[in-house]
Amino acid sequence: IGCGIVGRAAAGVTIEDPGKFGRLFILQALPGTQGFYGLVGLFLTLQKLIGIDVTKIPIEQGLQVLFACLPVGIVGLISGIHQGLVCASGCSIVAKRPEEVGKAMIYGVMIETYAILGLVSTVLLLGRITLG
Question: Model-level pTM?
């Protein structure tokens, strides 16, 4: 969602000045990192399940795994949308002052902090679960 928001804004700027594509692409890539964090959460969850018959996991432990994964999912969704909105606004900065792309990136990276905290929460919670 966030990448789509930025992509629409970046496309409008690129129509006017195709030379700004590289700077705008950086802004569009930022909200996509939440997808990678979700993928890390998936791999960690699957790693926990290696060698376990998932049909025999008690419901309580299954719910523990589910709730451990919620931080990366929920925070990733919300921060990805908001990061997309902030980075779309950053496209306006690049449109008028392309040399200020770093400032636009900093605004987007501030939201990234919360996505990382969501991932760290999931990692810590998954680490506390013992299956088997």
Answer: 0.89
